Amino acid sequence: MRGTAYIQAFTLYVDFSGYVQGVYFDDLNLQVLVKCHDDSVLEIALNALKLLEAKSITPAQAVAMVNQAAKSGGGQ
After folding, report:
1. Global confidence as pTM
2. Measured distance CA(8)–CA(5) in Å, rounded
3. Residue 64: exposed, middle, or buried by beta-carbon count in 10 A (0-12, 13-18, 19+)?
4. Cα separation of 73 and 9, whole Å?
5. pLDDT tens profile 21-64
6. CA distance 10 to 63
7. Domain that holds residue 63
């Protein structure tokens, strides 16, 4: 991004296989999701809830997603 003084990215990889393995990203496209950190955390919490309701993640994974988002600064 031209003229950018600071950027923080948050990546999330969820693996349901049960195997511990490394994750490597070759190319990331970054997009501004929301401007407000609180809105970002809320959006991630809603997504975590949807994944939890679909039984795609465990309650512990949902909590970890929201905690990480809150600590990350929301991608600002």
Report:
1. 0.48
2. 11
3. middle
4. 9
5. 777 777 777 766 555 666 778 888 888 888 889 888 889 988 88
6. 16
7. 1-76
**Distance (Å, whole) CA 22 – CA 55:** 24
**Helical segments of 3-75, H only:** 37-53, 59-72
Number of separate domains in the chain: 1
- 49: number of Cβ within 10 Å: 14
Q: Residue type for 32, please?
A: V
| CA gap 5, 7 in Å, rounded | 7
Q: What is the pLDDT of residue 76?
A: 42
Task: Give residue 5's Cα distance to chain centre.
Answer: 22
Nearest one of 32, 29, 41, 30 to 68, comparing CA atoms: 41
Residues 14 and 25: their CA atoms lie apart, in Å, by 14
Instruction: Identify the DSSP state of 55.
Output: T
